[in-house]
Amino acid sequence: MKQASRYLLIATLGLSFSGCATNKSLTTDAAYEQYPLVAELNRKLEKAREDDLAVLSPEYFESSSKTYSEALEQAVANNPKATNTANESLSALNQANQNATVARDLLEDVIKVRNKARAANAQSINPDAYAEAEDEFLTLTRYIEEGKIEKAKAGRADAIRAYTHIELAALKDTTMNRGLV
Asked: Which of 59, 60, 63, 84 has its CA 20 to 30 A from that of 47?
């Protein structure tokens, strides 16, 4: 009788564990297929990265990215909450896009000199000064996110000076190094 109870206990535990194993997780591709909103969000976030939303609207982009990670985890776990989480992320990403539109307009001149500094390889030639200029730029874009448009406008001249200075230093360094070769 004891042996029969032991077998019954083992069989019950085995069925319990196998019952838990039937709730399978999905591959990422299968999750995207099962939860198309998560797949759409992934595509939109990739485009947002290409469009520099990480610097044009850093807070909302970061929020959207984190929420996307949660949505993907839920989708891979085949959890229906993935759709709601993806909607939250899309909402943050839409706000990031709106902020980026304002930033591109309001900070157009800053963005131009920033791009020139990057083209001159200033981030490699003078990384400390470039990091300071980037911090200044991020402060301006955060002001835009917070609705502090006047503060963002007021900081444009300093950001332009910072990027122009490091661009010129990078060009000078490059020119001097070419002359030495």
From this structure: 84
Question: Any idea which residue has 């998560």 for tokens?
Answer: 38
Q: What is the pLDDT of residues 149-160, one digit of tens each?
A: 999 999 999 999
CB 142 within 8 A of CB 55: no
pLDDT in tens, 34-45: 999 999 999 999
Entry pTM = 0.79
Q: Specify whether the CB–CB gap between 73 and 106 falls below 8 A.
A: no
Q: Measure the CA–CA gap between 10 and 16, rounded to whole angstroms.
A: 10
Cα angle 162, 166, 169 (rounded to 5 degrees) comes to: 145
Q: How far apart are CA 129 and CA 114, in angstroms?
A: 12
Q: Left (φ > 0), alpha (ψ -120 to 50) or beta: where does 52 sit?
A: left
Exposure of 179 in the CB half-sphere (CA atoms within 13 A)? 6
CA distances from 78 to 17, 39, 42, 64, 115 (A): 19, 14, 17, 20, 43
pLDDT at 4 over 50: no
Which position has the token pair 């020119």?
175
- With vertex at residue 135, the alpha carbon angle to CA 131 and CA 139, rounded to the nearest 5 degrees, is 170
